[in-house]
Automatic annotation (TrEMBL):
Its EC number is 1.5.5.2. SUPFAM superfamilies: FAD-linked oxidoreductase. Keywords: FAD, Flavoprotein, Oxidoreductase, Proline metabolism. It catalyses: L-proline + a quinone = (S)-1-pyrroline-5-carboxylate + a quinol + H(+). GO terms for molecular function: FAD binding; proline dehydrogenase activity. One of its GO terms (cellular component) is mitochondrion. The lineage of its organism: Eukaryota, Viridiplantae, Streptophyta, Embryophyta, Tracheophyta. The keyword Oxidoreductase applies. It comes from Glycine soja. Converts proline to delta-1-pyrroline-5-carboxylate. It comes from the Eukaryota. Its cofactor is FAD. The keyword Transmembrane does not apply. This is Proline dehydrogenase. One of its GO terms (biological process) is L-proline catabolic process to L-glutamate.
């Protein structure tokens, strides 16, 4: 939240807008599709009602993740059965391997075999992990989430682009996503997501990252194209990707950079007009410096008056994450720039370790999973304290599937008085994952969003493959949700029979 192929050149060597402004309530709604009652389904009790009656007591900090009936009250039996089946399937390693092989195999890339694979994928993994094939379907999924007391992060499901025409096409998709968010019920969409790798050619991001790293090594190194930004590196940041002084950008590359800047500017302006925060996803360290540069320069330009429009992402499985977070927030405070962060553990463990090893360096990833947990929890605590002590200069999305981290953050928020529906704090999980944690946090009075990609099945296929690869451990460890789902399904069956 992986294994994406590193370029050969490198390998060779939550219910309310997160901003403080209210959303425009005049936008028309798209009504959710209500599934027909299934055999064992009873009328759901809206989770939002439970939230509205939750007082700011110690109960807010104590997540109730044991009451399966309450946690899944808004989930139909039909959907509960399908979710349970998909999670059980993805927890079986050989089955995931087989599915990935089938989707990648040249034999299944054309004709009838491809149609069969796409149809099977659409009815199973796609329908579970994605919001739909188009904007209308995504709108229905978002509206259904809102009925359950959750919000949605709209994700136009494209991955990388390698030339300007592709970047331009992707930009249109992102702009349309902002327009879709405006047509949905107010407050139902918390963020629109953008991947910089989809609106700026990958080779240019690699070149920019090389140049930024060299400037970190040699501060006298001048980058004439560089705009005002915030600290991108810390003393402990990995710089081994750039082994020698890179050549300046060529005139053609500078022209491509100007086009990329214009695309991001247009998207930021559209989000600003819609009062919709734009969250920039993180990538692997090969291109992350350039992504941070785009994010922070845009934050300086668009984040005004205690109202972050542009959010960046910090991956806490990186050893330098906490140090970079501290440097960036300190610099932003001096400049009077409000910041927004999404905090995640990270997604590219195998790739990063192999890349570092190829250069003869230690991995930039924490040596143990516990160190990663400690880093995430420490950064979370730091940001929550900033929210509590600020005049609101920080907004944060705590994107975690880890039960313990969710409990710690909820308790810390309560302790600091940041809890109940604070517009500066949002929890988030992937759509189709960690449902118990999502509903538990929502029941406790926090804003909670689900990361919801949408698009045609063949377009979203790279996303699904990447999720399958990078989330192997998470999928295999989904036993907590599966156990609660079985418990609730058993209870409904028993209630229907007796």
């Amino acid at each position: 939240m992986a294994t994406r192929v590193i370029p050969p050149r490198i390998l060779k060597k939550l219910r309310y807008n997160t901003t403080t402004k209210p959303l425009n309530a005049a936008h028309p709604s798209i009504s959710p599709v209500i599934a027909p009652p299934s055999l064992f389904e009873r009328s759901p009790s809206p989770v939002a009602d439970a939230v509205s009656t939750t007082s700011t007591t110690m109960e807010t900090a104590n997540l109730n993740l044991d009451d399966a009936e309450r946690l899944f009250a808004s989930v139909s039996t039909e959907k509960l059965l399908r979710s349970s089946a998909v999670l059980h399937a993805t927890a079986v390693g050989p089955m995931v391997d087989l599915g990935m092989w089938l989707m990648k195999s040249p034999v299944f890339q054309t004709g009838l075999p491809k149609d069969l694979i796409m149809a099977a994928t659409k009815e199973t993994f796609f329908s579970h992990f994605c919001a739909g094939e188009d904007a209308a379907a995504a709108g229905r999924s978002i509206s259904a989430l809102k009925e359950a007391g959750l919000r949605g992060m709209l994700v136009y499901g494209v991955e990388d682009a390698h030339e300007n025409d592709g970047c331009d096409r992707n930009l249109k998709g992102f702009l349309h996503t902002v327009d879709v968010s405006k047509s949905l019920p107010p407050s139902s969409v918390s963020f629109v997501i953008v991947k910089i790798t989809a609106i700026c050619p990958m080779t240019l991001l690699e070149r920019m990252s090389d140049l930024l790293r060299w400037q970190q090594k040699d501060p006298s190194f001048v980058l004439p194209w560089k705009q005002d930004s915030l600290p991108i590196f810390a003393e402990s940041s990995p710089l081994y990707h750039t082994q020698k002084r890179p050549e300046p950008l060529t005139p053609e590359e500078e022209s491509d950079l100007q086009l990329a800047n214009q695309r991001l500017l247009e998207l930021c302006q559209r989000c600003e007009e819609a009062n919709m925060p734009l969250l920039v996803d993180a990538e692997h360290t090969t291109v992350q410096p350039a992504i941070d540069y785009f994010t922070y320069s845009s934050s300086i330009r668009h984040n005004k008056d205690d109202n972050p429009i542009v959010f960046g992402t910090i991956q806490t499985y990186l050893k330098d994450a906490k140090e970079r977070l501290l440097l960036t927030t300190k610099a932003a405070e001096k400049m009077g720039v409000p910041l927004g962060f999404k905090l995640v553990r990270g997604a590219y463990m195998s790739t990063e370790s192999k890349l570092a090893e190829s250069f003869g360096y230690a991995s930039p990833i924490h040596n143990t999973i516990q160190e990663t947990h400690n880093c995430f929890n420490g950064c979370s605590s730091f940001l929550l304290e900033k929210i509590a002590n600020g005049p609101g200069s920080i907004s944060v999305v705590l994107a975690t599937h880890n039960i313990e981290s969710g409990k710690l953050a909820a308790a810390k928020a309560y302790e600091l008085g940041v809890g109940k529906v604070n517009h500066k704090l949002e929890f988030a999980q992937l759509y189709g994952m960690s449902e118990a944690l999502s509903f538990g946090l929502s029941n406790a009075g926090f804003q909670v969003s689900k990361y919801m990609p949408f698009g045609p099945v063949d377009m979203v296929m790279p996303y699904l493959l990447r999720r399958a690869e990078e989330n192997r451990g998470l999928l295999a460890a989904s036993g907590f949700d599966r156990q609660l789902m079985r418990k609730e399904l058993g209870r409904r069956l028993k209630a229907a029979m007796f």
